[in-house]
Design brief:
- With 36 residues, this protein is mostly helical.
- It contains two helices and no strands.
- It is globular, with a radius of gyration of 9 Å.
Amino acid sequence: MMDELTAVLAEMGLVPIDWVTASKFAELTGIDEHKL
């Protein structure tokens, strides 16, 4: 799962440090990051 997530984030131009930001964004928008 983590490799899959890493690949998706890489395609989106995100790096691991952005995971926290993505999680916070998901919280604020009500989007489940696992469904992105």
